[in-house]
């Protein structure tokens, strides 16, 4: 049984209990301070971590946006490349149609040349069968249909048309048929051959000289000028080959270049070519190749054999190749 009587405590016991309570209060205060400090530190670290997380998320988002922008740019470039491929395919189809049309024109010109040859042969036979001088021609006799000089002139025109048509074709075309000559008869009068142009005559002494013709791709009249120069050089006995030079600009006139270390005959032929081009109205000049002869900027489109770097003479057709009238 527990007694309900009050317990009497002396002053020493009360002091002991008060000291214990003070220590407990101090301990609880220390624990409270530590808890508040831990909460503050935890809150500070939480703010720092959340800031670092937000910065990382922002950098990741920026990187993804950059990748998205780069992907969009690549898509635009791919679309532009597809459009360029389509345009090039259309240009190739147009060039093929033009080549087929030129081949048909060459075939028609050859047919006309054959018909003219046949007519010339018939005319010479009629001249051969004509009665001798002093005898009256029968009433049924008819004069020759063609004059010999007229026949030769027409055949020369047809040969020139065939040559021009084959020169304009972008792909190699068959060689034009040689000009037919009417059969010689006792009544045919020999007509002297027409004199050669001064340009051809001045370069015939250098026949057999190879030459590479470079046409700047961005010059509109370069193909026609290159075809004219190539045809005249071929008539003079030279060996010209033509390439289209893309990705290069800033070349004025017609520049004749000679490979370093060439023989004196090659330099003499190049100097004669410059003089001949200047005499027929071209802004021609002789220049130096500033780098290795086998290296060049841009791209060359043309025959694969011979190589564009084989010839010791290089003719570059640039801007304002012809002199102003």
Shape: rod-shaped
How helical, in percent, are the residues? 40-55%
Number of strand segments? 6
- Radius of gyration from the CA trace? 48 Å
Number of helices: 5
What is the helix/strand order? HHHEHEEHEEE
What strand order characterises the main sheet?
4-3-6-1-2-5
Estimate what percentage of residues fall within beta strands: 5-15%
Q: Which regions contain 5 or more consecutive residues with pLDDT less than 50?
A: 133-146, 169-174, 182-189
The biggest beta sheet reads:
6 strands, mixed
Q: What is the overall pLDDT average? A: 81
Structural class: alpha/beta
Distance between the termini: 144 Å
Care to describe what's here?
- The chain is an alpha/beta fold and 325 residues long.
- 54% of the residues lie in helices and 10% in strands.
- The chain has five helices and six strands; from the N terminus they run αααβαββαβββ.
- It has helices at residues 11-128, 148-168, 198-203, 222-235, 264-279; strands at 210-216, 239-246, 254-258, 284-287, 299-301, 313-317.
- Strands 4-3-6-1-2-5 form a six-stranded mixed β-sheet.
- β1 (210-216), α4 and β2 form a beta-alpha-beta unit.
- The radius of gyration is 48 Å and the shape is rod-shaped.
- Mean pLDDT is 81; it is low at 133-146, 169-174 and 182-189.
């Amino acid at each position: 049984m527990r007694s309900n009587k009050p317990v009497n405590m002396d002053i020493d016991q009360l002091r002991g209990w008060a000291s214990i309570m003070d220590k407990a209060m101090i301990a609880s205060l220390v624990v409270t301070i530590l808890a508040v400090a831990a909460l503050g530190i935890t809150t500070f670290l939480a703010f720092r971590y959340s800031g670092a997380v937000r910065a990382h998320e922002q950098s990741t988002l920026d990187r993804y946006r950059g990748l998205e922008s780069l992907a969009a740019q690549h898509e635009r470039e791919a679309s532009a490349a597809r459009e360029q491929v389509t345009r090039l395919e259309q240009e190739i189809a147009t060039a093929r149609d033009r080549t087929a049309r030129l081949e048909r024109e060459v075939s028609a010109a050859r047919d006309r040349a054959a018909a003219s040859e046949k007519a010339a042969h018939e005319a010479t036979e009629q001249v051969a069968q004509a009665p001798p001088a002093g005898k009256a021609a029968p009433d049924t006799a008819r004069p020759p249909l063609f004059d010999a000089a007229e026949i030769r002139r027409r055949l020369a025109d047809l040969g020139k048309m065939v040559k021009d048509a084959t020169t304009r074709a972008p792909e190699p075309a068959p060689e034009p048929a040689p000009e037919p000559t009417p059969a010689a008869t006792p009544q045919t009068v020999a007509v002297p051959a027409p004199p050669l142009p001064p340009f051809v005559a001045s370069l015939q002494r250098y026949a057999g000289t190879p030459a590479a013709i470079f046409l700047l791709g961005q010059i509109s009249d370069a193909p026609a000028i290159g075809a004219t120069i190539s045809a005249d050089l071929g008539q003079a006995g030279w060996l010209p080959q033509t390439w289209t030079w893309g990705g290069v600009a800033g070349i004025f006139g017609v520049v004749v270049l000679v490979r370093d270390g060439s023989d004196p005959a090659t330099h003499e032929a190049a100097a004669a070519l410059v003089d001949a081009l200047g005499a027929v109205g071209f802004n021609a000049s002789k220049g130096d190749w500033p780098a290795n002869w086998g290296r060049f900027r841009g791209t060359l489109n043309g025959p694969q054999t011979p190589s564009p770097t084989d010839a010791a003479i290089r003719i570059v057709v640039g801007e304002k190749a012809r002199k102003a009238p």
